[in-house]
Write a structure and sequence with these properties.
Layout (H helix, E strand, L loop, with lengths): L6 E3 L8 E5 L5 H7 L3 H6 L7 H17 L2 E8 L8 E9 L7 E8 L8 H17 L6 E7 L3 H9 L3 E6 L10 E7 L3
Parallel strand pairs: 5-6
Antiparallel strand pairs: 1-2, 2-3, 3-4, 4-5, 6-8, 7-8
Length: 188
């Protein structure tokens, strides 16, 4: 993955176009702002409260790209007259290992962008990219995990054809409650 990856998601009648690109240090201020949302903090595995936290988080995303095993994308909504776009979420492909048949996806959506189809549209773009990019290297399925009481994530998984597989036991501290495992296979 030497060339920068930018994924485009077309506009719909109800929502502007989205683009997904690797995280940059210039995103830290917007990341801190969206991270203030209590609902997001409830589900997030890491907390971003200040510039130091934000820089550490973005650097972790960048290390994943450099290692070729974790691909975090900032999700930006196109804004008329702006080349930057507004941060509306994050989508992630992780645990990518050559020859390993499965990897994991994750995502979150900023409070101001919820209810507009951002998560399913970006998850679908990431899923297509993951299979297109890594299927020849052995990727056969993607897993999506969420806590059992995160009903919005369950709906996103279903919309994106990630089939419910099983209930996973809690694994505190990062996964304090039971969870759902959803799986999507390349043949879907």
């Amino acid at each position: 993955m030497n060339a920068p990856v930018v994924l485009q998601v077309a506009a719909t009648s109800a929502s502007p176009a989205l683009f997904l690109r690797p995280w940059r240090m210039a995103d830290v201020a917007a990341l801190i702002e969206v991270s203030r949302d209590r609902a997001l903090r409830q589900w997030a595995s890491s907390v971003v409260d200040n510039d130091t936290d934000g820089a550490r988080w973005v650097q972790a995303q960048q290390r994943g790209w450099a290692a070729g095993n974790r691909f975090g994308f900032a999700v930006l909504e196109e804004q008329p007259g702006s080349v930057r776009g507004q941060l509306v979420g994050n989508v992630l492909l992780k645990e990518v290992i050559s020859g390993k048949p499965e990897a994991e996806v994750g995502y979150w959506t900023a409070a101001h962008a919820r209810g507009r189809g951002v998560a399913p549209r970006t998850l679908e773009a990431l899923t297509s990219w993951a299979f297109d990019t890594f299927e020849a290297d052995g990727l056969e399925r993607l897993k999506l995990l969420h806590q059992v009481d995160n009903l919005a994530s369950c709906r996103v998984a279903q919309k994106c054809r990630y089939d419910f597989d099983s209930i996973l036991p809690a694994a505190p501290p990062s996964f304090p409650r039971n969870g759902h495992l959803h799986i999507r296979r390349t043949s879907v």
